Amino acid sequence: xxVKVTRxxxxxxxxxxxxxxxxxxxxxVWVDVGTRHEPAAINGVAHLLEHMAFKGTARRSALDIATExxxxxxxxxxxxxxxxxxxxxxxxxADVALAVDILSDIVQHSAFDPAELxxxxxxxxxxxxxxxxxxxxxxYDLFQERAYPNQPMGQPVLGRADIIKxxxxxxxxxxxxxxxxxxxxxxxxxxxxxxxxxxALAEKSFTxxxxxxxxxxxxxxxxxxxxxxxxxxxxxxxxxGFPGIxxxxxxxxxxxxxxxxxxxxxxxxxxQEIREKRGLxxxxxxxxxxxxxxxxxxxxxxxxxxxxxxxxxVLCDELKKLADGLxxxxxxxxxxxxxxGLLMSMEGxxxxxxxxxxxxxxxxxxxxxxELVKHIDAVDKDAVRRxxxxxxxxxxxxxxxxxxxxxxxxxxxxxxxxx
Length: 419
What we know:
Blueprint: E1 3-7, E2 13-18, E3 24-31, H1 45-52, H2 62-70, E4 75-80, E5 85-92, H3 96-108, H4 114-132, H5 135-147, H6 161-164, H7 169-179, E6 185-191, H8 195-205, E7 225-230, E8 236-243, H9 252-263, H10 269-277, E9 283-291, E10 294-303, H11 305-321, H12 328-345, H13 349-363, H14 369-377, H15 381-391, E11 397-402, H16 410-417
Parallel strand pairs: 2-6, 7-11
Antiparallel strand pairs: 1-2, 3-5, 3-6, 4-5, 8-10, 8-11, 9-10
Helix pairs in contact: 1-7, 3-8, 9-12, 9-15, 12-14
């Protein structure tokens, strides 16, 4: 494996994955805080901070940030998740120093100009409005809030409009100062560069980071339940899920194999049984999302008003059948899909950069693809049966949006799912 790791004197870790055959480098700063680390009173501040990082620093305007990176043909972007925040760029190998300079500038020296904050506040309110107009997006926020009610894990990543309207500059700057600390931050790069050169750049550039974070992590408490909203839509959007598997759980890989076989492609059980044989949906798939201390296993379906009532009993039957495990051909096909996806992603600098960042944040060390393939190959029929029973034994969470009057009530649905 070509991955090297160095911890700087301030506690920040530098990770490189050298790829000599390419001409580019993907590079980013990952921070170990996200939406679940926000106080409820300022929900959305992590995402707002991510936006404000590009709106000017002590020595660069917002226009300077954009033009400097684009002048060399590169690009820069960012995202916020429930547990992490990332700022990343892709450049030619000759421009790594510029990318590091820009990334270190925006995460350490953002100006948080009040006028820029007002403009970006409006932009985020538009983003929230756009999400509200996109039912197959908003239903995931409704699902998360119902699965994890009244706790940080259930908060929407974009924040709530009424809070975004009132968050002030000092709260945004204070969140950065309190939570962006060197020991919880990574500088990760994949591509044609040397580890030693990146370490030298990091030592020179990241000198203003806090030595410790004040962020707290409230344990995720899955509860489940039922949330429905009638809307004048052409389709009913449905999410049915259960408590899932944490990254560190021994059944993590078995859950991934199971979800892929159940609803991970056109050959999956859900697609074949519910779309191809019965024609009950346009879109259906399963997912297994993991967190540091839990997860979600679920199914999304988009269906017509007249088909929604028929869909749910069939879906419940398919979920119950999982307890019997997978057929040998299903198990082998699912393992092959996961391994192919993993190995194909290794051909791109962006995917490799993000993969190494994820491994470092989750496990504290890089994972070799050979090791990952061994974990996938080790998933056998007994592991699949075990994890299937685990994943469908917890209290269900149902969220439904659109013309949903034909969907039976939560008590009947729960009864159907009992083995």
